[in-house]
């Protein structure tokens, strides 16, 4: 994609100004440049799926000790947390809920799609809070945090971010695959030319 856009641009100076990548990679770049604004160090780590699952296991143990036989496994909670974030994450951010208290309306998701987990709802929400606190303390982010923290950076600090003011166009490849959460990024860039 970058090569195709580069070929379309005649001015070599403009070619050097292209910022490209997946949402996660561009978010990672912005967050590392402005980590201090988000109470992170710029050398924060990114959890892969396996590391994230291990941290959720630790959060379960810290929250409730040894879970019962039917309590959801870490991998299931990982999927639940991500699904809740991607469906409802923007609501908590708009309401300016602090990072460690955001649960992305996990209760609504469980009531509507996973009623067999209702009896564990309170504990699941506590596990999520513990998981989020552990990530922040450990200076680590999972893939959803990259998007969440990048969007929060834009919402709260966009006037202070010179790069945001320099962006003239945003090109989205595979737009049909863009989630509602990702669409919110376009509202917070001072750009009215989305291609």
Give the structure's gist in a few sentences.
With 195 residues, the chain is mainly α.
What does this structure look like?
This protein is mainly alpha-helical and 195 residues long. It has one domain (2-187). It contains ten helices and two strands. It has a two-stranded parallel ribbon with strand order 1-2. Helix 3 (23-33) crosses helix 8 (143-157) and helix 4 packs across helix 7. The protein is elongated and about 65 Å long. 23% of the residues are buried.
Keywords:
195 residues, mainly alpha
Tell me, briefly, the overall form: elongated
Biggest beta-sheet profile: 2 strands, parallel
Mean pLDDT: 84
- Number of structural units classed as domains: 1
Work out the radius of gyration.
19 Å
The residue ranges in which pLDDT falls below 50 over 5 or more consecutive positions are none
% residues in beta strands: under 5%
What oligomeric state best describes the polypeptide chains here? single chain
Give the spatial strand order of the biggest sheet.
1-2
Termini gap = 13 Å
* H/E series: HHHEHHHHEHHH
How many individual helices? 10
Protein topology:
Layout: H1 2-8, H2 12-15, H3 23-33, E1 45-46, H4 49-64, H5 74-94, H6 106-113, H7 121-137, E2 140-141, H8 143-157, H9 162-166, H10 180-187
Parallel strand pairs: 1-2
């Amino acid at each position: 994609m970058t090569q195709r856009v580069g070929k379309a641009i005649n001015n070599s100076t403009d070619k050097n100004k292209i910022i490209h990548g997946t949402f996660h990679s561009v978010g990672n770049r912005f967050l590392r440049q402005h980590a201090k604004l988000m109470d992170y160090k710029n050398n924060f780590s990114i959890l892969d799926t396996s590391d994230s699952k291990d941290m959720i296991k630790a959060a379960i143990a810290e929250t409730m000790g040894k879970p019962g036989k039917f309590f959801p496994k870490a991998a299931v909670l990982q999927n639940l947390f991500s699904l809740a974030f991607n469906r409802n994450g923007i609501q908590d951010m708009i309401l300016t809920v602090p990072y460690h208290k955001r649960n992305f309306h996990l209760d609504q998701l469980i009531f509507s799609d996973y009623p067999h987990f209702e009896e564990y709802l309170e504990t699941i929400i506590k596990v999520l809070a513990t998981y989020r606190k552990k990530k922040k303390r450990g200076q680590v982010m999972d893939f959803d945090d990259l998007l969440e923290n990048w969007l929060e950076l834009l919402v709260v600090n966009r006037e202070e971010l010179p790069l945001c003011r320099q962006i003239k166009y945003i090109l989205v490849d595979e737009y049909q695959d863009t989630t509602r959460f990702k669409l919110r990024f376009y509202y917070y860039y001072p750009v009215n030319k989305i291609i």
